[in-house]
Automatic annotation (TrEMBL), chains A, B:
It comes from Ornithinimicrobium humiphilum. The gene is thiL. Residues 37-150 form the PurM-like N-terminal domain. Catalyzes the ATP-dependent phosphorylation of thiamine-monophosphate (TMP) to form thiamine-pyrophosphate (TPP), the active form of vitamin B1. This is Thiamine-monophosphate kinase. Keywords: ATP-binding, Kinase, Magnesium, Metal-binding, Nucleotide-binding, Thiamine biosynthesis, Transferase.
Length: 336, 336
């Protein structure tokens, strides 16, 4: 970050926007009929249906300035939003970006944020349609992104949380617990990676990038329910289980294999805990009919059972005959 | 606001969302294929094009808790967003609502906000598609709304800021300066209206409601450029003038007539200033071909001249041979 001493307040709204728009100049413009700079954007929607989601990140809750660059924050907030689209079987078609910050914020930070957003949006081929700039009275800094999208080619219906059926297989699109493990490293004072594994974990915490095409792949492969792991396997799995009225029963061996990927950066017990409860992962959790093979890259996590079987007497995520508590297995924005 | 002592932190994310969704239960669901509660919303877009805009309001910048209720804030943020759609010739089809607040925020405030949003959305017939809830580390409270929309029936192309031509007429869809005048009253200690005029001004500052159908009306009547007056006549007019490369020349008589509507709540000189610079009005400013009559309810403000004529030697808003300075005639979010 080149900090030239300029602030948002010194540059003024129009000056800041000029810098921000420059960071988005290289993005694709497919479908953008009216881009940033007018009252609203206008986006072509050839499929006749638009997916829409919004996610906000807040300084000192979702990132710390001493651990994350502005670019990191930009990547993270875009991934969060695009993963929600992927979890429906969709792909991004446009982003709206709102920044709220005090006038004293370094202009270089706003520029870095836009660069990070532009980088992640560019990887996914998604244009920026517009945004908003607001000043905050205290020192709060927030970035609220809205992502618009469409169901991907070959996906005819959105994959909801409510479609899991007994007999389905539970699977995940990639590793779990990386972001939580990275946060544990940071909290333990490891801000610089000492090996390749630590680097991967710290990177995934700071700027998660996942394979967003796995959502449409899963949808085309017949996924019956899907969610992105933003609040932890147990907590997000619990949402699928309750919406579908089923029990998701984890295979302890599968959990241990995922945990093993976090060792030795974390000891095995903490690695297991991160696999179950670590948030901000943004891999996809999905259920598939039991008679089909999983799409490439997906790992089997367990099975979907009817409530009442094998001692699973309520919808939820179960392991070894016990229901895993979503309240302690994940992150509640207000209960902590 | 019935404050039962509950807070966001005490109720937890799921509990808060249940209350919030209840406030939206009466909204229309036209076009909503997937509503709140899954990873994203899914909205039908029969026209094949979606308008999208986002606007954020921040406590102690955009409202003060001692002057505005939570319901007021909800109405205001919805009007801000829908007015942007109207200014393109559009109408709302869906809203996304993000609230960021400390865990100590009274639940009653969040409920009141949702009620205000539901009220304004209901007037406009717009469903809520989804949202986000985040906690802030300090005491910042922010509401970021994204509005999706479509060009209204009979509107074939969006009305941009850049389409004004010499020979056009400049007009506004209603009164100007009410919100700014209401703010002046509040700053002067008048928090309770003493007459009907003060009541209208305070109401428009706290919870602006404008006739959003005037945007599509203007578009159908051939409006060549349009913007909503969110930062003041001079500042927003300047944006149209620069985008179109023209001079907007105000008729002093028209400005005085608008100012007269703010008298005697304000003295005439301060009323004139509010007409020119008062923001958060959310009436529409548009240019129309000079040979047509204005749509019902619109008031003529002046004319569009080529740059270089009548001493208007630069794009901008002009009156009595002088260019009005957008920096002092309006509100810059960072220059103050």
């Amino acid at each position: 970050m080149v900090d030239d001493g300029a602030t948002l307040g010194g540059r003024g709204e129009r000056g800041v926007l000029a810098e921000v728009f420059a960071a988005y100049a290289g993005l694709p413009t497919d479908g953008v009929l009216v881009g940033p700079g007018d009252d609203t954007g206008l986006l072509a929607v050839p499929t006749g249906r638009v997916l829409a989601t919004t996610d906000t990140v807040v300084r000192d809750r979702d990132w710390r300035d001493d651990w994350s660059t502005a670019q990191d924050v930009g990547v993270k907030v875009v991934t969060q939003n695009l993963a929600d689209l992927a979890a429906m079987g969709g792909r991004g078609t446009g982003l709206l970006v709102a920044l709220a910050a005090p006038p004293s914020l370094p202009l270089a930070w706003a520029r870095g944020l836009a660069e990070g957003i532009g980088y992640a949006a560019g990887l996914a081929g998604v244009p920026v349609l517009g945004g908003d700039l607001s000043s905050t009275a205290g020192d709060a800094v927030l970035v609220a992104v809205t992502a618009l999208g469409e169901l991907a080619d070959g996906v005819t219906a959105p994959v909801l949380r409510s479609g899991a059926s007994p007999g389905d297989v539970l699977a995940v699109s990639g590793p779990l617990g990386r972001s939580g493990a990275g946060l544990e490293l940071l909290l333990g004072g490891v801000t610089e990676a000492r090996d390749e594994q630590e680097r991967r974990l710290l990177d995934h915490h700071r700027r998660p990038l996942t394979d967003l095409a796995q959502g449409p792949s899963a949808a085309r492969a017949g996924a019956t329910a899907m969610i992105d792991v933003s609040d932890g396997l147990v907590r997000d799995g619990d949402r699928v289980a309750r919406a579908s009225g089923v029990a998701l029963v984890l295979d302890p061996g599968a959990v241990d294999r995922l945990a093993g990927e976090l060792v030795p950066a974390l000891p095995l017990d903490r690695a297991r805990r991160q696999v179950l409860s670590g948030g901000e992962e943004h891999e996809l959790l999905a259920t598939f009919p039991g008679d089909r093979s999983l799409p490439e890259g997906w790992r089997r996590l367990g099975q979907v059972l009817p409530v009442g079987s094998d001692g699973a007497d309520a919808p939820g995520v179960w392991q070894d005959g016990a229901r895993l508590d979503p309240a302690t297995g994940g992150w509640d924005h207000f209960e902590g």
